[in-house]
Amino acid sequence: MARLKAKDRTALISLGQDRSFAAREVLLSQGELSTHVLLIVDGWVKVSATAANGYETLLALRGAGDIVGEGEALWGRPRSATVTALGSVSAVVVEGARFRAFLERSPEAALEMLRFSTDQTREADQRRLRFASATARERFAELLLDLARSHGRRTEEGIEVTVPLTSQELAGTIGGSRETVARLMKELRERGVITRRRRALVVVRPDVLRRMAALTDSAEDTRNP
């Protein structure tokens, strides 16, 4: 919603109803037939898809100011992903018919939505391309950099990331296992690249993560941070 003009944001929000969701509550389910959209007001949600064998892949994180579920509202297709609250979430629910009518009345808002959707698709395509040829170690380093850049807060210690992702969710994002994530987290803590707090991860040395994301395992092992 941040891309919309203030008057368009206000108009869109006025069309919906306030809803609150508890941590780990499912907001939208993959495969369901529904057309409403969610305007995230506060909190974090994860967007994930599950394969036939049950393996879950984390596709994206969305937070305050983001719109979720707009594709199905426009095209009426089954939900392509599941949206789950990572903590307490406040949102505005707008029925699909109202959302479509809003876009028809507001061509500027419709254009911004199209740009946003195009940017998301381009970003996802670029990430898939990079990940296809990268090792799990490189993918994990890039994931931490992405989280720090998109969802981090600068502190004296480093860049604090408070998005509450589990080891399984991190593993699903990089196409690895929980054991791989645990091993990499241990390595990065021992090297002073990251630190862990009760509800946060702090990126202390993003420069090391950048090198890890750009180099092969063997090349990175020859360098010290």
TrEMBL record:
It comes from the Bacteria. Keywords: DNA-binding, Transcription, Transcription regulation. PROSITE patterns: CNMP_BINDING_3, HTH_CRP_2. GO terms for cellular component: cytosol. Residues 1-103 form the Cyclic nucleotide-binding domain. The lineage of its organism: Bacteria, Bacillati, Actinomycetota, Actinomycetes, Kitasatosporales. GO terms for molecular function: DNA binding; DNA-binding transcription factor activity. This is Crp/Fnr family transcriptional regulator. SMART domains: cNMP, HTH_CRP. Gene3D superfamilies: Jelly Rolls, Winged helix-like DNA-binding domain superfamily/Winged helix DNA-binding domain. It holds the Pfam family HTH_Crp_2.
